[in-house]
Design goal:
single chain, 269 residues, alpha/beta, 2-enoyl-CoA Hydratase, Chain A, domain 1, 2 domains, four-stranded mixed sheet, globular, disordered N terminus
Amino acid sequence: MRHNATDAAEAASAPLLDIDGARATIRLNRPRHLNRLQADDLKALLTLFDRIEADPATRVMVLTGTGRAFSAGYDLNSVAERAVSAKEEKEEEQSAGSAFEAVVNRLEDLGVPTICRLNGGVYGGSTDLALACDFRIGVDTAEMFMPAARLGLHYYKSGIKRYVSRLGVNAAKKLFLSAQKIDAAEMLRIGYLTGVTTLDKLDDEVGALATVLAGNAPVAMAGMKRAINEIARGQLDEAAADQRHRDSMRGAEIREGIKAFSEKRPPKF
Protein backbone atom coordinates (compact mmCIF):
# COMPACT_ATOMS: atom_id res chain seq x y z
CA MET A 1 0.00 0.00 0.00
CA ARG A 2 1.31 3.43 -0.92
CA HIS A 3 0.78 6.67 0.95
CA ASN A 4 1.27 10.26 -0.18
CA ALA A 5 2.53 9.16 -3.59
CA THR A 6 2.25 11.63 -6.43
CA ASP A 7 2.21 11.29 -10.20
CA ALA A 8 2.84 15.01 -10.64
CA ALA A 9 6.33 15.31 -9.20
CA GLU A 10 7.13 18.05 -11.72
CA ALA A 11 5.34 20.63 -9.59
CA ALA A 12 7.75 22.11 -7.06
CA SER A 13 6.92 21.31 -3.47
CA ALA A 14 8.36 20.44 -0.11
CA PRO A 15 9.92 16.95 0.09
CA LEU A 16 7.50 14.16 -0.78
CA LEU A 17 7.06 10.96 1.23
CA ASP A 18 6.12 7.62 -0.32
CA ILE A 19 5.71 4.50 1.80
CA ASP A 20 5.70 1.13 0.09
CA GLY A 21 5.69 -1.78 2.51
CA ALA A 22 8.79 -1.60 4.70
CA ARG A 23 10.44 1.05 2.54
CA ALA A 24 9.95 4.80 2.94
CA THR A 25 11.19 7.13 0.19
CA ILE A 26 11.72 10.85 0.64
CA ARG A 27 12.03 12.76 -2.62
CA LEU A 28 13.40 16.30 -2.80
CA ASN A 29 11.06 18.01 -5.22
CA ARG A 30 12.20 21.33 -6.66
CA PRO A 31 13.57 20.03 -9.97
CA ARG A 32 13.58 23.37 -11.81
CA HIS A 33 16.07 24.63 -9.21
CA LEU A 34 18.01 21.35 -8.94
CA ASN A 35 16.19 20.54 -5.69
CA ARG A 36 17.78 23.45 -3.86
CA LEU A 37 16.60 23.31 -0.25
CA GLN A 38 14.56 26.11 1.33
CA ALA A 39 14.03 26.80 5.02
CA ASP A 40 10.57 25.22 4.83
CA ASP A 41 12.10 22.08 3.31
CA LEU A 42 14.33 21.65 6.36
CA LYS A 43 11.32 21.75 8.68
CA ALA A 44 9.50 19.27 6.45
CA LEU A 45 12.43 16.87 6.44
CA LEU A 46 12.59 16.84 10.24
CA THR A 47 8.87 16.08 10.38
CA LEU A 48 9.25 13.24 7.88
CA PHE A 49 12.22 11.78 9.74
CA ASP A 50 10.16 11.69 12.94
CA ARG A 51 7.27 10.06 11.12
CA ILE A 52 9.47 7.37 9.60
CA GLU A 53 11.22 6.58 12.85
CA ALA A 54 7.93 6.35 14.74
CA ASP A 55 6.50 3.72 12.34
CA PRO A 56 7.69 0.21 13.32
CA ALA A 57 6.64 -1.10 9.91
CA THR A 58 9.24 1.09 8.19
CA ARG A 59 12.56 -0.77 8.03
CA VAL A 60 14.57 1.29 5.53
CA MET A 61 14.54 4.83 4.16
CA VAL A 62 15.64 6.03 0.71
CA LEU A 63 16.45 9.69 0.04
CA THR A 64 16.48 10.90 -3.55
CA GLY A 65 15.67 13.84 -5.82
CA THR A 66 13.34 14.65 -8.68
CA GLY A 67 14.84 15.41 -12.07
CA ARG A 68 18.46 15.54 -13.23
CA ALA A 69 20.17 16.39 -9.92
CA PHE A 70 19.98 15.09 -6.39
CA SER A 71 20.29 18.54 -4.86
CA ALA A 72 22.08 21.86 -5.32
CA GLY A 73 22.33 22.28 -1.55
CA TYR A 74 20.85 24.92 0.72
CA ASP A 75 19.54 28.06 -0.96
CA LEU A 76 22.27 30.71 -0.71
CA ASN A 77 19.66 33.46 -0.75
CA SER A 78 18.12 31.89 2.35
CA VAL A 79 21.54 31.84 3.98
CA ALA A 80 22.00 35.53 3.22
CA GLU A 81 18.54 36.44 4.47
CA ARG A 82 19.03 34.53 7.70
CA ALA A 83 22.56 35.80 8.36
CA VAL A 84 22.73 38.11 11.35
CA SER A 85 25.08 40.94 12.19
CA ALA A 86 27.55 40.82 15.05
CA LYS A 87 25.32 43.22 16.96
CA GLU A 88 22.41 40.80 17.17
CA GLU A 89 21.84 38.15 19.79
CA LYS A 90 24.17 35.16 19.82
CA GLU A 91 21.28 32.73 20.28
CA GLU A 92 19.66 33.97 17.07
CA GLU A 93 22.95 33.64 15.23
CA GLN A 94 23.36 30.06 16.38
CA SER A 95 19.79 29.23 15.40
CA ALA A 96 20.19 30.63 11.90
CA GLY A 97 23.52 28.91 11.37
CA SER A 98 22.52 25.48 12.65
CA ALA A 99 19.19 24.75 10.93
CA PHE A 100 20.70 22.82 8.03
CA GLU A 101 23.28 21.15 10.28
CA ALA A 102 20.51 19.91 12.57
CA VAL A 103 18.71 18.25 9.66
CA VAL A 104 21.86 16.48 8.47
CA ASN A 105 22.77 15.28 11.95
CA ARG A 106 19.20 14.05 12.51
CA LEU A 107 19.41 12.07 9.26
CA GLU A 108 22.73 10.51 10.27
CA ASP A 109 21.23 9.29 13.54
CA LEU A 110 17.93 8.03 12.07
CA GLY A 111 16.98 4.73 13.69
CA VAL A 112 16.50 2.88 10.40
CA PRO A 113 19.17 2.25 7.74
CA THR A 114 19.25 4.89 5.02
CA ILE A 115 20.18 4.84 1.35
CA CYS A 116 20.84 7.94 -0.74
CA ARG A 117 19.69 7.32 -4.31
CA LEU A 118 21.90 9.81 -6.14
CA ASN A 119 19.97 10.36 -9.35
CA GLY A 120 22.42 13.07 -10.48
CA GLY A 121 24.78 15.76 -9.28
CA VAL A 122 25.15 16.67 -5.62
CA TYR A 123 26.42 20.10 -4.63
CA GLY A 124 27.17 22.22 -1.57
CA GLY A 125 25.50 21.25 1.68
CA SER A 126 23.68 18.40 0.02
CA THR A 127 26.98 16.57 -0.30
CA ASP A 128 26.85 16.32 3.49
CA LEU A 129 23.16 15.40 3.45
CA ALA A 130 23.99 12.43 1.23
CA LEU A 131 27.07 11.58 3.28
CA ALA A 132 24.88 11.33 6.39
CA CYS A 133 23.07 8.39 4.79
CA ASP A 134 24.41 4.91 5.50
CA PHE A 135 24.76 4.06 1.80
CA ARG A 136 25.01 6.11 -1.40
CA ILE A 137 24.26 4.55 -4.77
CA GLY A 138 24.74 6.94 -7.68
CA VAL A 139 24.44 7.11 -11.43
CA ASP A 140 27.64 7.00 -13.46
CA THR A 141 27.06 10.59 -14.63
CA ALA A 142 26.95 11.98 -11.08
CA GLU A 143 29.34 14.66 -9.88
CA MET A 144 29.91 16.46 -6.61
CA PHE A 145 31.13 19.91 -5.68
CA MET A 146 31.78 21.51 -2.27
CA PRO A 147 32.17 25.28 -2.96
CA ALA A 148 32.67 26.53 0.62
CA ALA A 149 36.19 27.86 -0.04
CA ARG A 150 34.99 29.79 -3.10
CA LEU A 151 32.14 31.33 -1.12
CA GLY A 152 34.24 32.35 1.88
CA LEU A 153 32.27 29.99 4.10
CA HIS A 154 33.83 28.05 6.96
CA TYR A 155 31.73 24.90 6.96
CA TYR A 156 30.02 23.78 10.16
CA LYS A 157 32.10 21.50 12.37
CA SER A 158 29.93 18.37 12.33
CA GLY A 159 29.98 18.39 8.52
CA ILE A 160 33.77 18.62 8.45
CA LYS A 161 33.98 15.81 11.01
CA ARG A 162 31.71 13.67 8.84
CA TYR A 163 33.86 14.25 5.77
CA VAL A 164 37.05 13.40 7.65
CA SER A 165 35.68 10.33 9.44
CA ARG A 166 33.97 8.93 6.33
CA LEU A 167 36.41 9.90 3.59
CA GLY A 168 39.73 10.55 5.34
CA VAL A 169 41.86 13.64 5.79
CA ASN A 170 43.28 13.78 2.25
CA ALA A 171 39.92 13.50 0.50
CA ALA A 172 38.33 16.02 2.87
CA LYS A 173 41.11 18.54 2.20
CA LYS A 174 40.85 18.05 -1.55
CA LEU A 175 37.09 18.57 -1.59
CA PHE A 176 36.93 21.47 0.87
CA LEU A 177 40.10 23.38 0.05
CA SER A 178 40.28 23.01 -3.74
CA ALA A 179 36.51 23.41 -4.24
CA GLN A 180 36.78 21.39 -7.44
CA LYS A 181 34.20 19.08 -8.96
CA ILE A 182 34.85 15.35 -9.02
CA ASP A 183 33.07 12.75 -11.15
CA ALA A 184 31.35 9.50 -10.22
CA ALA A 185 34.49 7.39 -10.68
CA GLU A 186 36.41 9.56 -8.21
CA MET A 187 33.43 9.66 -5.84
CA LEU A 188 33.54 5.86 -5.79
CA ARG A 189 37.32 5.73 -5.39
CA ILE A 190 37.36 7.92 -2.29
CA GLY A 191 34.44 6.07 -0.75
CA TYR A 192 31.84 8.78 -1.14
CA LEU A 193 29.75 6.43 -3.25
CA THR A 194 29.16 2.88 -2.09
CA GLY A 195 28.00 1.89 -5.56
CA VAL A 196 27.79 3.26 -9.12
CA THR A 197 25.40 2.16 -11.82
CA THR A 198 23.64 3.38 -14.95
CA LEU A 199 20.44 5.37 -14.74
CA ASP A 200 18.34 2.51 -16.11
CA LYS A 201 19.63 0.18 -13.38
CA LEU A 202 19.57 2.65 -10.50
CA ASP A 203 16.19 1.63 -9.12
CA ASP A 204 17.12 -2.05 -9.29
CA GLU A 205 20.36 -1.46 -7.38
CA VAL A 206 18.68 0.68 -4.74
CA GLY A 207 15.75 -1.72 -4.47
CA ALA A 208 17.99 -4.75 -4.02
CA LEU A 209 19.90 -3.10 -1.17
CA ALA A 210 16.70 -1.81 0.42
CA THR A 211 15.25 -5.33 0.36
CA VAL A 212 18.32 -6.75 2.09
CA LEU A 213 18.25 -4.07 4.79
CA ALA A 214 14.51 -4.37 5.34
CA GLY A 215 14.93 -8.11 5.93
CA ASN A 216 17.53 -7.83 8.67
CA ALA A 217 16.91 -7.52 12.42
CA PRO A 218 15.82 -3.89 13.01
CA VAL A 219 16.79 -3.58 16.68
CA ALA A 220 20.22 -5.12 16.14
CA MET A 221 20.83 -2.92 13.09
CA ALA A 222 19.75 0.25 14.89
CA GLY A 223 22.07 -0.50 17.78
CA MET A 224 25.06 -1.33 15.59
CA LYS A 225 24.45 1.74 13.43
CA ARG A 226 24.47 3.88 16.56
CA ALA A 227 27.72 2.32 17.76
CA ILE A 228 29.41 2.75 14.36
CA ASN A 229 28.39 6.41 14.18
CA GLU A 230 29.56 7.03 17.73
CA ILE A 231 32.92 5.38 17.00
CA ALA A 232 33.31 7.49 13.86
CA ARG A 233 32.74 10.61 15.97
CA GLY A 234 35.06 9.36 18.73
CA GLN A 235 32.14 9.34 21.17
CA LEU A 236 31.27 5.67 21.74
CA ASP A 237 29.03 5.09 24.76
CA GLU A 238 30.70 1.79 25.69
CA ALA A 239 28.33 0.94 28.51
CA ALA A 240 25.27 1.43 26.32
CA ALA A 241 26.81 -0.61 23.49
CA ASP A 242 27.67 -3.42 25.91
CA GLN A 243 24.12 -3.37 27.27
CA ARG A 244 22.62 -3.58 23.78
CA HIS A 245 24.89 -6.56 23.06
CA ARG A 246 23.78 -8.35 26.25
CA ASP A 247 20.13 -7.58 25.55
CA SER A 248 20.43 -8.96 22.03
CA MET A 249 21.73 -12.28 23.34
CA ARG A 250 18.42 -12.93 25.09
CA GLY A 251 16.08 -11.07 22.76
CA ALA A 252 13.39 -12.17 20.34
CA GLU A 253 15.44 -11.25 17.28
CA ILE A 254 18.27 -13.69 17.99
CA ARG A 255 15.81 -16.49 18.74
CA GLU A 256 14.12 -15.97 15.40
CA GLY A 257 17.44 -15.56 13.59
CA ILE A 258 18.86 -18.82 14.93
CA LYS A 259 15.59 -20.66 14.33
CA ALA A 260 15.41 -19.42 10.73
CA PHE A 261 19.05 -20.36 10.14
CA SER A 262 18.49 -23.91 11.38
CA GLU A 263 15.33 -24.21 9.29
CA LYS A 264 17.13 -22.83 6.21
CA ARG A 265 14.60 -20.05 5.66
CA PRO A 266 14.66 -16.24 5.71
CA PRO A 267 14.09 -14.81 9.20
CA LYS A 268 10.89 -12.95 9.98
CA PHE A 269 11.72 -10.04 12.24
